[in-house]
Write a structure and sequence with these properties.
This protein is mainly beta. The chain is 11% helix and 42% strand. It contains 2 helices and 19 strands. The strands form 5 sheets. It has a 5-stranded antiparallel sheet with strand order 3-4-5-6-7, with no helix packed on it.
């Protein structure tokens, strides 16, 4: 357990932004013991708010957030200015995402086939990651450029991403050899490279490499276990 050293609480202000509640934080930090987990802090917050409510003779209750519902797409389950994720439990493919450009204009609506809730992330100023899962350890990665209205093919278990470059393990058809692929996510003609090493075989090829890290300025660091020596190898590679 990592002890809390200071509590900083941001609360929703009229449904539009989150603001720092200095009064609440100051009072809680005065009472904060040396070791406190998340449940303890949560109980402290409820206790303090009830104390405030007692001073005016009312019972404090957490106000549940009202769900946002779209009549066609269902309930909003995740929302930020760049994209919104909806869930409609009456459909076989219940998830739909809407993506907006920098001017707030809808530029993409996509139905997502995923047993688990999809994950969306703005990975650059203009590129949105759409990650779906079939209930296994397989992740299906698609990227959408909301400025230029371009969508990538779907990639399996992307290990790392920086800008338009992604890294993933793949079996090269001609040689049946598993390689680390580094490529431009939208166009392999822009950049494509196969990195072949003495990777230890695994039934799931993405497990044949421990980590891939883009270090910036055209350098990546990879870590894998050598098939023959079984030693852990860490290597820096210029792209």
């Amino acid at each position: 357990m990592i002890p809390y050293t200071e509590i900083r609480i941001y609360e929703e202000d009229y449904g539009r932004k989150f603001v720092y509640n200095k009064h609440l934080c100051d009072e809680l930090n005065k009472r904060l013991p040396q070791e406190a987990d998340a449940e303890y802090v949560k109980d402290m917050i409820l206790e303090f708010k009830q104390e405030e409510a007692d001073t005016i003779g009312v019972e404090y209750k957490e106000k549940p957030a009202e769900p946002k519902i779209d009549p066609d797409l269902g309930e909003v389950v995740f929302e930020r200015p760049e994209f919104v994720l909806y869930r409609d439990t009456t459909e076989d493919s219940p998830y739909t995402c809407r993506i907006y450009n920098g001017d707030g204009i809808l530029v993409k609506q996509k139905t997502l086939s995923s047993l688990m809730m999809p994950y969306l992330e703005l990975v650059t100023d203009d590129i949105v990651l759409i990650l779906t899962n079939a209930g296994t350890n397989l992740g299906f990665y698609t990227y959408y450029d909301r400025k230029n209205d371009i969508e990538t093919e779907t990639f399996l278990n992307v290990e790392a991403q920086e800008g338009r470059l992604i890294a993933y393990m793949e079996k090269v058809a001609e040689e049946e050899e598993v390689c680390l692929i580094i490529r431009d996510m939208f166009d392999k003609e822009v950049y494509y490279r196969e990195i072949k090493r003495n990777f230890t075989p695994h039934i799931s090829i993405d497990m044949m490499i421990n980590s891939v890290v883009f270090l910036g300025e055209g350098v990546i660091q990879i870590e894998y276990r050598d098939k023959d020596s079984q030693e852990l190898v860490r290597e820096m590679i210029d792209l």
